[in-house]
Amino acid sequence: MVPSGTKGQTPGAVRLEKDGSVAVLVIDNPPVNAGSWDVRNGLLAALRASCADPEIAAIVIIGAGKTFVAGADIREFDKPLRDPQMPAAIEAIEACAKPVVAAIRGAALGGGFELALGCDVRIATLDAVVGLPEVTLGIIPGAGGTQRLPRLIGSAPAIEMITSGRRVGASEALRLGLIDSIVEGDLRAAAVRHTRTPELRKRRIGELPIPAEDPQAVAKAAVAAHARARGRAAVKEAVEAVRNAARLPFKQGLVEERAVFQRLRESEEAAALRYLFFAQRDATRVSGLENAKPRPVRRVGVVGAGLMGSGIAACFLDAGHAVTLVERDQGSLDAGMERILAIYRRAVETGRISGEEMTRRLSLVASSLDLAALSDADLVIEAVFEDMAVKQALFRELAPLLKPGAVLASNTSYLDIDVLAGVTNRPADVVGLHFFSPAQVMRLLEIVRGAATAPDVLATALAVGKAIGKISVVARVGEGFIGNRIYSAYRFQCEFMLEEGAYPEEVDAAMLAFGLAMGPFAVSDMSGLDIPWRTRQRQAATRDPKARHPEILDRLCELGRFGQKAGAGWYRYPQGSRRGEPDPDVRALIDAHSAAKGIKRRRFSAEEIQWRALTAMLNEAALLLGEHIAERASDVDLVMVNGYGFPSQKGGPLFWASRRPPEAIAAALDNLAVASGPAFRRGDYAAVLRQLTPRFS
Ligand code: COA
User: Fold this and answer.
1) What pLDDT, in 10s, does the model give residues 544-575?
2) Where are the domain boundaries for CATH 3.90.226.10 in the chain?
3) What is the C-alpha to C-alpha distance for residues 306 and 502, in angstroms, rounded to an integer?
4) How many whole angstroms separate alpha carbon 262 and alpha carbon 72?
5) Axis-axis angle for helices 504-514, 483-500 (nearest 10)
6) Measured in angstroms, how far is the CA atom of residue 32 from the centroid of ligand 1?
7) 16-63 residue pLDDT tens
8) What is the DSSP letter of 21?
9) Which of 78, 103, 484, 522 could form a disulfide with 191 if both were Cys (CB 3.0 to 4.6 A apart)?
């Protein structure tokens, strides 16, 4: 129903429409109603006008389109914010004697939810999502969120919600008291009706006392948040800000909050996280797909029920797809189904899903020992043993069984998709879908575009990535694609440093101190040294004889030190321990190796280790960008952050480098060239840097 009423003129992206004695303020700033200057300016003007208008008894704030307000306009954050800012609009709501209703549809996030918290009532549709995700952008809420939320729901839940940045759906939001009611049907009409309820009055959250709560619960929430912070300043600051709500008068709490927000907004950490926010969206804009329409994907087949296959199956079950899991023998199939069951049992135990939801998801999976069971699948992903001959044999058999139009994907982490596609009669249907382990947890999906991959097949892969909630990055064919290729260069350089004087525990400690989730040698022990050993043996014949090659890993493997599973690798693992201890035998082996190679060992500082390792990543990234394996520099950073434990607050190796003095990077690359020997190839860093100049200048 089109509401009766008149449309008023206000500046900016807010329309003031009158519905009898109700002023309806429609925020209209497509695509997501971000709270840009236009919105803030329009909102303030419309609020002032409505408040001053004697014909108006109440005000409704609503978003045009599918969203309320998706938060501040992040594109404005690289420069000083122009007045009016969001707190001024919220102050105007509080200063106005007339009740203001927030009518929420879709996302009310960050400044959008803070705006709603400034209103007297919040009503929402069932599809509404509210939250304060600022910490994910390296800042804290800056328009009263840390002061109003604890007054509404208590300090402990507020700490949890703000420091996790969690998005809360309408039903839970109602339960928590974040919204006052859920409405069905026309939201705007319901909001206008709501203004006529007799009990409606001003209810300024800032005037409410913080609900009584157990100080232990608040302390516990703060400890849990600090544990999750992993070096992110914003999380710690958010805890303090929420605690201020109980310590300071409301107005002073607001002033303190705004000061922290402004300070953090200008930090390198916040700039890095903003960069990643847009990188994630840019990554889905792939050249050549302008007219490609994704093929529909409902039924999915997964061949190989190992750790990877079962994790991949769970990703699709989570998103509501029907999945058929296929294995060669009953034992492996049963083990795979058991693994899927274990994933969901754990999700229920930890409260992430309900028992009914587990039953629903498990009802979507079927299993078979026969590849023919996949004849009606829209997409089939192979996750069998990482060996070209094995995968080729499977593709040869599978391709003729699949229906026309079905997409055939490989989960290979480094093999040549073109060679694989070449054994089928339908190479245009073949694409790489490289998941990371554990597939149901890790957010990265490296999509590999083969030479013959059809545009609509690539578009299908991107659509599938979105449907299962992954961060998708497209790579072209090349050994190790983007991530494993860079990781391998990094790992080689770390091994060189061992030959020159460092020890595994020193390199790992330096990279942990930089912020990586794990050091390279701890990772190597976890994933097994035998795999790179075999790869290096395979590559030995074609390796440039001039290339410097690290050999300590070979020596360890010759001693059977294959890593954690063998109880020994770069570290030792006494009595099956999962925590490695520095091993004097490894130190002795490294010392002897350096001596045999005639290398005089020297000490490495943590900073030198970090720079050497990071420039190795940087150089390999520049090389693969030059070869068009990755489409853009920010794609590389997305891969390293989301698949390889690179700290998001540093933005990725390329963003990190772009923030360092160019002459320091040039010197580090010179140093890398000398250390790497005569076969070293230098990437075009200047070209990378050109891509990384600020997008908002
Ligand atoms: N500021 C500026 N632009 C924003 C934005 C924001 N807060 N939120 C989204 N956008 C832009 C995106 O960059 C994208 O632009 P593009 O089409 O040029 O790539 C467009 O809006 C659509 O966003 P997208 O995320 O692709 O749409 P979606 O429908 O999948 O999701 C949201 C919508 C609102 C859930 C999601 O955009 C979101 O989570 N936004 C950020 C919320 C946030 O963190 N707010 C706190 C800010 S302090």
Assistant:
1) 888 898 999 999 999 999 999 999 999 999 98
2) 14-266
3) 37
4) 13
5) 130
6) 6
7) 999 999 999 999 999 999 999 999 999 999 999 999 999 999 999 999
8) T
9) 103
Say if residues 15 and 31 touch (Cβ distance below 8 Å): no
pTM of the model: 0.93
Distance 31 CA to ligand 1 centre (A): 8
Domain 299-481 classified CATH 3.40.50.720? yes
Q: By alpha-carbon position, which residue is closest to atom 31 of ligand 1?
A: 32
User: Measuring from atom 43 of ligand 1, which residue has the nearest CA?
Assistant: 71
CA distance 451 to 477: 8
Q: What percent of the chain has pLDDT over 70?
A: 98
Q: What does the H/E/C string look like for 204-235?
A: CHHHCCCCCCCHHHHHHHHHHHHHHHCCCHHH
**Predicted pLDDT at 4:** 37
Segment 591-601 shows an average pLDDT of: 96
Please state whether beta strands 430-435 and 167-169 pair in parallel, antiparallel, or not at all (unpaired). Answer: unpaired
- The answer to whether the beta carbons of residues 651 and 642 sit under 8 Å apart is no
Residue of the nearest CA to atom 23 in ligand 1?
32
CATH 3.40.50.720, the chain: domain bounds:
299-481
Residue type for position 151: R
Digit-coded pLDDT (tens) for 386-442 = 899 999 999 999 999 999 999 999 999 989 999 999 999 999 999 999 999 999 999
Active-site residue, 237 included: no
Question: From the candidates 134, 269, 505, 620, which is the catalytic residue?
Answer: 134
Q: Do residues 394 and 423 lie in contact, with contact meaning Cβ atoms separated by under 8 Å?
A: no
Q: Is any atom of ligand 1 closer than 6 Å to the C-beta of 525? A: no
* From 17, 114, 256, 446, active-site residue: 114
Q: Is the pLDDT of residue 196 over 90?
A: yes
Give just the sign of the alpha carbon dihedral 619, 623, 628, 630: negative
Topology of domain 484-696, CATH: N-(1-d-carboxylethyl)-l-norvaline Dehydrogenase; domain 2 (1.10.1040)
CA distance 417 to 448: 8
- Strand ranges in 184-343 using DSSP code E only, listed in sequence order: 299-303, 322-326
The letter for the amino acid at 622 is: A
> What's at 317, amino acid-wise?
L
pLDDT of residue 230: 80
269 is an active site residue: no
The CATH-assigned architecture of domain 14-266 is: Alpha-Beta Complex (3.90)
* Cβ of residue 117 lying under 6 Å from some atom of ligand 1: no
- In this structure, the number of other CB atoms found within 10 A of the CB of residue 186 comes to 13
Q: Are strands 22-27 and 14-19 parallel, antiparallel or unpaired?
A: antiparallel
Q: Of all residues in the chain, what percent carry a pLDDT higher than 90? A: 91
